[in-house]
Predict the 3D structure of the following.
Amino acid sequence: MVAGRTAGLHGIGPRAVRVKAPGKINVSLRVGPLREDGYHSVASVYLAVSLYEEVTARVTEDAGVTVTVNGQGSLNLPLDQIPLDASNLAARAATLLADLSETSTGVHLDITKRVPVAGGMGGGSADAAATLLACDALWNSGFSRDELAKIAVDLGADVPFALVGGTAVGLGVGDQLTPAISKTPLHWVLVTSAFGLSTPDVYRTLDDLRTAGGNEPLEPPEMDPKILGAMRAGDARGLADLLHNDLQLAALELAPELKDVLQTGVDAGALAGIVSGSGPTVAFLADGADHAVEIEALIASTGLQTAVVHGPAHGARIVTDFVA
Ligand code: ATP
């Protein structure tokens, strides 16, 4: 699967590189018409949050890409739903980078998952972004961040943002990123679900609902500029009124129980709640760090699985590399 010379195997480069990359919430996600390429145009305001995936890429004697996955953190993740073959998004990222690199080696990817699986928080995308950065360092490929972000588009619309992190507006399919300023952290309580939702299914359901209602959009969507103002000011109360997700309607159609989850968070005192991306994770906005802890305790007491996070969080970053 991976071609090329074995530069790092007996050379002086690192034999292993560990990279962290964040999950995300879409603070606003407006979905436009279905494009000819089968994707929807979107206007997305991404916020990277403090729930990080970790990928350790290690040089192997044998050619090819192998993957293992382990879970960490407070969330009980269904790791058995993650493919360990070439279809794993991290494996695809390593294969793609190997093809583009002058030298490459066999590589083992050990993924530590903390982001909900099929949860609408871009966990697989974070794994792919982390892998690109790790393999670039492992093989001395020498791609710049911008070049890696361009390569990342081929792996998925959310992968470039996991590289960049912070806060950004995403146009096109979400991949045309413009970083935005937001210095004051925003605090959130996540409620995860025991089941996942398939992103293509959620988009298809939205299309069906729009067709049935005769309200299909004709133009690519635009973003409400007030959102960026509220995020820049760290104005959680102002932002609460502006949270928006066109996919929420479709996620609620596929998983009606999420309506109760949204109500539980509002009853617990959250400023607002929103389905994250294609769901089913629900994100509740709190009025500060202490408030987030209070809300979380109330929501968790109803038996739901919760996590407190904040954002903006940094994008993909090398944590350690070792020659060993
Ligand atoms: P999206 O970025 O489409 O919003 P998501 O956050 O809802 O995705 P992910 O956890 O990224 O969901 O993964 C969606 C599906 O992709 C999983 O159900 C799984 O079958 C497959 N998959 C492939 N590689 C990975 C990976 N490294 N981690 C998680 N899922 C993966």
